[in-house]
Amino acid sequence: MRAVRVRAVIVALTLALAPLEGAAAQDFPSRPVRFVVPYAAGGSGDLLARLLGNKLASIWGQQVVVDNRPGAGGLIGTEFAAHSEPDGYTLYLATDGPLTIAATLYKRVPYDWKRDFAPVSMLAMGYQVLLVGRSLPARNVQELVALARQKPGELNYASIGIGSAPHLAAELFKSVAKVDITHVPYRGSSAQAIAALIAGDVSMFLVGTSTAVPYIQSGAVQGLAVTSSHRVQGLPEVPTFAEAGLPGVDVSIWFAVLVPGARPRQSSASSAPTLRKWSPIPSSRTPWQCAASRLKPARPSSWRSSWTRTTSSFATSSASSACRWNDAAAGRCAQMPELRGGAGDAERGA
């Protein structure tokens, strides 16, 4: 089944990326392809991009270079991709943060996703897991909540930047649990945030499961709950938030491939040789499966309308409701000084 899902992603990409018609399209790609990831190396998106990039490189016979451009919660890399040449030689790994969420967190962002990007394929759905350090005297969600209520404002949590998925998930947790925990943003690096967690510099970190799995399995940190509605493969011992006694923290993260430009040109004829050379490679599926996430390829037409509805919904609500994953989080966003801001513009140094 996963071989079929991987193949669906490859099909969508090869049909969408041939930039020209005729003889030039048949030679695509004739040089290396850049794959922009708006986050630091080592995170969930980076892992997915490298797995897919390796697969595409083996099929195309051209190098696919993963270009990590972290900062400002994903805005810096997204701006770079948005303004890249729309020639099919730049791919962009998209998530909700820099696109649908950032559009409502800030009055202005340096791109317009509707104008500057074209969707190619949905790739995967992932979840987040609540991590705490071994030195924290909390072995489950209820103990963490009790500790936070005993020490309002004294505990803190890490994120990879203002407006990032870990930031908003933690704010959702705070809202649902009715606790006061201080935000400590790091510059786009899950590895840096986890190092701080292990060192005891921060109390908790909500991060993608693919990033968290090896640290939980090694015993370096403890996973208290996952944000899915069901236990995830790879972390069978970690309960859902509902099972842990805190229903309402139930969110997912989507990953998709976009390309610069309003519409990628297509050439089925030029893609056919690539598709014929495709074959399942089980080793390319194992890391993502073991990372407690799931591949979820889909045609652009089947998910762009949902994406548009999500953004439209955000646009008609106040900026303070941009936490988005649960209505209860809106009140907490309104209280976050980093979101109230002065000019309301996206900060590059977040």
CATH-assigned homologous superfamily of the largest domain: Bordetella uptake gene, domain 1
Number of discrete domains: 2
Radius of gyration from CA coordinates: 20 Å
Mean pLDDT: 75
Task: State the CATH architecture of the largest domain.
Answer: 3-Layer(aba) Sandwich
What's the total helix number?
15
Task: List low-confidence stretches.
Answer: 19-23, 265-293, 309-350
Report how far apart the termini are. Answer: 40 Å
The total beta strand count reads 11
Spatial ordering of strands, largest sheet: 2-1-3-10-4-11
Q: Strand count, sense and closure of the main sheet?
A: 6 strands, mixed
Based on the structure, what is the oligomeric state of the protein chains? single chain
Helix percentage: 40-55%
- Strand proportion, as a percent range, falls in 15-25%
The helix/strand class is alpha/beta
CATH class of the largest domain: Alpha Beta
Order of helices and strands: HHEHEHEHHEEHEHEHEHEEHHEHHH
CATH topology category name of the largest domain: D-Maltodextrin-Binding Protein, domain 2
Task: Please provide a brief summary of the model.
By secondary structure, this protein is of the alpha/beta class. It has helices at residues 2-17, 23-26, 44-60, 75-82, 96-105, 113-116, 141-150, 165-177, 190-199, 209-218, 268-277, 282-290, 300-315, 329-334, 337-340, and strands spanning 33-37, 64-68, 90-94, 117-126, 128-133, 156-159, 182-185, 204-208, 221-226, 253-260, 294-298.
